[in-house]
Amino acid sequence: MKKPDTPATEEARLNTLRALNILDTLPEERFDRVTRMAKRLFHVPIALVSLVDENRQWFKSNDGLTVTETPRDISFCGHAILGESTFYINDTLEDERFCDNPLVTGEPNIRFYAGHPLTAANGEKIGTLCIIDREPKKLNSDDFTALSDLAHTVEQELCAIQLSTMDELTNLSNRRGFTLVANHYLNFNKKQNTPTTLVYFDLNRFKEINDKFGHSEGDNALQLFASVMKSSFRSFDLLARIGGDEFVALFFNSDLKIADDMIKRLSVNLQKVHSSLELEYQVGFSYGLVECNSLMLSSIESYIQQADNKMYENKMFEKKQMSSNNTD
Question: What is the CB-side half-sphere exposure of residue 201 using CA atoms within 13 A?
Fold first, then answer.
């Protein structure tokens, strides 16, 4: 048996896949519709939308199998994502790469496989639309075209998911995407009894930037802040833009002190960027912190509101201090 090779852009590929926030989600009609169509069109017992994660292939849509995932090192789809076109094995027992594969010698007894790679908007191959039979099967040119067209349908649905959960300007999660993933992590961290902290950011004097320098420069300020957030915080922290100039971050395995230290690092890094770019304005922020208590059952929306309230209190305090200093 030949294990699938690792793509040259594996890290970027995995980042692209995980940014979709689709792994381990419930079945959806938009994908199940495609696999049902593939089964009927090709007269096969199994059709899958398979997403290739780091050590497994997970099935977003599964018509014909009783399992939801299989190891990547024995997967056919792991081979399929290495190419641009359909990966096709008309008889696995005659192919030395797969004749002794556990998925061939045991359940589901694969004898035929065809998988077309699913390409994300940035060009990374994140999975396949594949069809499987327990008997040898041959495809013609029309079949390859049809499978490619169905795979493109899946790609469009994946793109729609990304657009509905991502903020196009900053490439961070939007509010919908953040709440979907954050609630999942909150539940996990509560089970593990690990501290989690939410921070709510509001950019200071953002309206003045728009009014004085124009909305295009305002967009640049938002992108700058998002970029410095990503470079200042850890790769596994969850970041989002949830409003016009409002951002949030969920810090895992972090209490209030650790979170406050990371925010100080963000402030320092922003100052460095200001100096290097010689900006005519400052991208400052006010923030509110709240620890997500593992003993409470609050939703992420509740924590966002609490952190927003604390941010507002801090902003009012800062304004009073500035007013007092100006009076003096």
Answer: 25
CB burial of 258-280 (b: ≥16 within 10 Å; e: otherwise) equals: ebeebbeebeeebeebbeeeebe
Choose which CATH entry (3.40.50.720, 3.30.450.40, 3.40.50.300, 1.20.1050.10) describes domain 10-165. 3.30.450.40
User: 3-class DSSP state for residue 323?
Assistant: helix
Say if domain 175-327 classifies as CATH 3.30.70.100: no
Name which of 241, 175, 230 is nearest 183 in CA terms. Answer: 175
Q: Of all helices (H) and strands (E), which one includes residue 61?
A: strand 56-63
Q: Kindly state the tokens that stand for 69.
A: 């995932």
Strand order in the sheet with 196-203: 238-241, 246-252, 196-203, 285-292
Q: Which amino acid is at 322?
A: M
Tens of pLDDT along 86-139?
Answer: 999 999 999 999 999 999 999 999 999 999 999 998 899 999 999 999 999 999
pTM of the model: 0.63
- For CA atoms 41, 43, 45, 46, the dihedral sign is negative
